[in-house]
Design goal:
By secondary structure, the protein is mostly beta strands. The protein is 6% helix and 48% strand. It contains 2 helices and 26 strands. The strands form 5 sheets. Strands 1, 2, 14, 15, 16, 17, 19, 22 and 24 form a 9-stranded antiparallel sheet that branches. The protein has a 7-stranded antiparallel sheet with strand order 3-4-5-12-7-10-13. A 4-stranded antiparallel sheet has the order 6-11-8-9, with no helix packed on it.
Length: 306
């Protein structure tokens, strides 16, 4: 996943709800028949736990012969996670990984001191036409691990734990929560779950960890008597347990969070670091072609000069 320019999302202080601190309203950006909504970073909420970047891609429908082509590009200082609702993406990276991802599975890439990857529509979907809808996130690595060796891991859908309640089903994508632990190898305390609710059903979001947010994928919910529509990120107040109920039909939401970052992060293009010098060094390496290439994918995205 590569950074694309998006408008700064709107962010309202939720003064009438003790459970919610901010409501972030990402603005869609059209990338040529394919829209992206970016919730993080926002002015008021630069991060939520380790989450420093949160994009919704689609929903989009591609005609036969078309698809996405995110050319090889570099990352440092972060881990990426792709979570699909619909469609498929083929991942290739400079470690030699080649892995298709489909809904319910996790592609987890740890950039560390540097990795290059591409994301493209698989051949079969490109030929037939397809739909694509999902989320792409970046998590900042802890300061003492931001230059660790890069790695890539794939977790099939049946490896992720689930939890259920009346009219509710959740998938723990990464981290710990609701008495479950995901096998995804995170580098800091993390909470990331996909929860589906039948109309009128509810789920309780624990007060811990300190930083938490809810992202509305589909349907509407009520929290404290207030209704929230799809596409909004609700940043929760610290230490306040929250009950979320589907309103007027089924709903689907993501719960994300973790401990606060161990210091501010600088972000430039696809680079995240605690030290500006690390970003400058990565920029120079990319300009000079000193990152390892992606085997079998000779294209690349040039460094944006901004």
């Amino acid at each position: 996943m590569s950074w694309t320019e998006c408008d700064t999302p709107g962010c309202d202080e939720a003064l009438n709800e003790k459970a919610i601190r901010y409501v972030i309203r990402p603005k869609p950006r059209d990338l040529g028949g394919f829209s992206v909504r970016r919730s993080l970073p926002a002015i008021e909420a630069r991060s939520v736990g380790p989450f420093v970047f949160f994009d919704q891609m689609g929903p989009a429908e591609f005609a036969p012969g078309t698809g996405i082509d995110v050319r090889p590009h570099p990352h440092i200082g972060l881990a990426t996670l792709t979570w699909l609702v619909e469609g498929a993406i083929m991942h290739r990276d400079s470690l030699g990984s080649v892995q298709e991802i489909r809904p319910g599975a996790v592609n987890w890439m740890t950039a560390g001191h540097g990795i290059v990857h591409s994301e493209r529509t698989p051949v079969t979907e490109r030929a037939a036409g397809h739909k694509l809808y999902g989320l792409q996130i970046w998590m900042a690595l802890p300061k003492d691990r931001e230059t660790m060796d890069p790695a890539f891991d794939h977790y099939p859908a049946d490896s992720l734990p689930t939890f259920e309640g009346p009219g509710m089903r959740g998938i723990l994508v990464a981290g710990e929560g609701w008495g479950k632990k995901s096998p995804v190898t995170v580098q800091s305390r993390t909470l990331y779950a996909d929860i589906s609710l039948e109309d009128g059903a509810s789920v309780s979001v624990p007060a811990d960890p300190a930083e938490r947010a809810i992202y509305m994928l589909d349907g509407a919910v009520t929290i404290g008597g207030e209704r929230h529509e799809p596409g909004a990120m609700l940043v929760l107040e610290e230490g306040v347990p929250v009950t979320v109920a589907a309103s007027g039909g089924p709903a689907r939401l993501m719960v994300l969070g973790g401990d606060p970052l161990d210091g501010p992060r600088r972000m430039y293009w696809n680079f995240v670091a605690t030290d500006e010098a690390m970003i400058e060094e990565a920029k120079e390496r990319w300009r000079e072609g000193r990152f390892d290439p992606v085997p079998g994918d000779d294209e690349f995205i040039p460094l944006p000069e901004r």
